[in-house]
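Run log, item B.
One chain of 285 residues. Sequence copied directly from the ordering sheet:
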Amino acid sequence: MTSAPPARAPALSGLVRATHALPTLAVTVFFTATAVAAGLGAARCVLLAAAVLVGQTSIGWANDYVDAPLDRAAHRGDKPVAAGAVRRELVGRCAAVALLADVPLSLALGWRPGAAHLVAVGSAWLYDLRLKWTWASVLPFIVSFGLVPVVVATALPGAPRPQLALVAAGAACGVAAHFANTLPDVAADAVTGVRGLPQRIGPAASTVVAALAIAAAAALLVIATDAAPLALAAAATDGTAAVVVIGLAVTDGRERKQAFRLVIAAVAVLVAAFVVSGGDRLTSR
């Protein structure tokens, strides 16, 4: 009896996990839900979801391919390439194929939304390839998150412009996500030498920045939705979360990790509030 065939399942599982499956699905659902709320047709919503899913998958694979040597040095058992669950070369090839496939998928939406989406994906790739080690590490998050309403709005008939307040809110969510995302990885980043902006200013300051960015995003959502009741409720919830997150800035590393979960939950609250109450306010009036 040979044991070779059963080995394929763990490799496939590792390849799926290397896409950063949960964030990838979350971003895809956010894009799609926003498009549905804005009135994009069913067929174009499916096309948008496919483009976003493929683009996010390419980003996840690129991240694990580039970071593999560093993840091994930090003994990151949660990273499938570093843990030996899938070969680095395979992940790299899949990242390249997914990136190429995303070009026609994105442009099928039209040149404006397609170009905006490809810029967002390219910005995330630039982060993985270079900017994560520099002071400019936050810029790809500002660009990519800020382009979310641009992609959806320009995919609508007539390619209208999105509200600037929503573009700014998306960028603020990107800032919050970037600074909060580093909090659980402080020890690993110290080992691998990753020196983006959050690592340079330290975990306590990064926690405060994430909290302030969430508060700013909440205020911008209220403006964009003309103070819709759900937006106000979301702002109140996220304002409270921001205060709690700032309080965690002065705690030790283990408690500070809770700030990451709170920030992600706060972003989810804003997204849900906009989709339910503000989808028809996506574009400029």
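Observations after the first pass:
- The radius of gyration is 19 Å.
- The chain has 13 helices and no strands.
Flagged for discussion on Thursday.
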